[in-house]
Design a protein that fits this description.
Layout (H helix, E strand, L loop, with lengths): L1 H36 L6 E13 L2 E6 L2 E7 L3 E13 L4 E15 L2 E15 L4 E5 L3 E6 L6 E7 L5 E7 L1 E6 L5 E4 L4 E4 L8 E2 L27 H8 L22 E5 L21 E5 L57 H12 L5
Parallel strand pairs: 6-7
Antiparallel strand pairs: 1-3, 1-4, 2-3, 4-5, 5-6, 6-9, 7-8, 8-11, 9-10, 10-13, 11-12, 13-14, 15-16
């Protein structure tokens, strides 16, 4: 009997040990599977959508607003075969990718890293996360201005040159091999050849073209109408206003045109070596007054109606000047009244006399 009990105890110990080992093995498999297939939510990058994309590596398929979405996680590798794709970041920004493109994403806390191999990336980020883009030779990091949004385009054109455009905010470029860096200001459009910062040139604006579609606001939920109750109808009867035609508001009068004055002052000059800085010469200050010259008014037309005859004024004969009464004039110098000429007669004797006077003018 003692031998039989000993054998039974040994078998029980062996079974319990095997069960414990199996349970530990299953627990290890569950933990390893959870780590590989279900990583913690902290490394979620955002949902990706596109027409022809292929995602490998860590990812999660979720249902968002009744639609199935693929959520990228740290370590995901994405390939856009054609068309474009869009990533809606967890923090609220968006990243558009124009294919054919190939890139991978890594995330640690609020830092997001994108390793771009081919294609064009258009990133629009409000404040988070902190984005860093890597190419085989260049490191690009957007820089916000005044805590504003960042809108940057980085990619490769058909010739293989790297094109960069900063719509909002600046972009810091660093050559990974030499450590040389440069800051592209806001509104810049440049391109690099062979990944060298020394070959930085101004772009034409058509090299990198990848438009981003901002998320549209969801439509409002449908409203269900209900019949009004008797109390609401009685309460709203007194609020009904008569239909009174509205009076059109008068258009405001156009503003009066006034002259515009501009003052042109020469630039200030600062000399670090001089103890007293030179002052501006007042003769160099120019005051410009701009006004609009009104055109000359020219009336064209004709006068209708009968012409009115105008009589010429009759000039009065000048009166002879009278001598003053207090001045005495000698009798021999007083003017004699002119005798009227004798009337001419056309008798025969007068004609003969006139003929004789013409022949002999000295005889009476």
């Amino acid at each position: 009997m003692s031998l039989w009990f000993r054998q039974m105890n040994a078998r029980r110990k062996i079974a319990m040990c095997s069960l414990a080992a199996g349970a530990m093995f299953v627990a290890l498999l569950v933990v390893s599977g959870a780590r590989s297939d279900n990583p913690p939510p902290g490394d979620a990058v955002g949902s990706v959508e596109g027409e022809a994309i292929a995602v490998t590596g860590p990812m999660t398929v979720e249902t968002v607003n009744g639609q199935v979405a693929t959520v990228l996680r740290s370590g995901s590798d994405v390939r856009v075969k054609s068309g474009s794709a869009r990533i809606k970041l967890v923090e609220g920004g968006q990243i558009a990718i124009c294919g054919p493109a190939h890139f991978s994403v890594l995330k640690s806390g609020n830092a997001l890293t994108i390793a771009l191999d081919t294609g064009i990336i258009h990133a629009h980020i409000e404040q988070q996360p902190t984005l860093t883009m890597y190419t085989p030779q260049i490191q690009a990091q957007p820089v916000s201005i005044g805590d504003g949004a960042q809108d940057t385009v980085v990619g490769f054109d058909a010739s293989g040159a790297m094109c960069i455009r900063t719509n909002r905010g600046a972009l810091r470029l660093e050559q990974q091999l030499t450590g040389q860096s440069i800051l592209v200001p806001q509104g810049g459009d440049v391109f690099l050849s062979n990944g060298q910062i020394d070959s930085l040139r101004t772009g034409s604006g058509n090299r990198c073209s990848c438009d981003i579609q901002l998320a549209e606001a969801p439509p409002p939920p449908p409203e269900v109408s209900q019949l009004a109750t008797a109390e609401e109808v009685h309460h709203n009867v007194g609020d009904v206003k008569p239909n009174v035609p509205t009076v059109e508001a008068r258009k405001p009068a156009p503003p009066k045109e006034e002259p515009i004055y501009q003052v042109f002052v020469p630039p200030l000059i600062f000399d670090a070596k001089a103890a007293v800085q030179p002052e501006i010469d007042p003769k160099m200050i120019v005051l410009v007054r701009r006004v609009r010259v009104r055109p000359t008014l020219i009336f064209q037309g004709r006068v209708e109606g009968d012409l009115v005859a105008v009589k010429e004024p009759v000039l009065a004969a000048p009166k002879p000047s009278q001598a003053p009464a207090n001045i005495s004039v000698p009798p021999n110098q007083q003017p004699t009244a002119s005798k009227p000429p004798a009337p001419k007669t056309d008798s025969l004797s007068d004609r003969v006399r006139t003929f004789v006077h013409k022949l002999w003018p000295g005889k009476p």
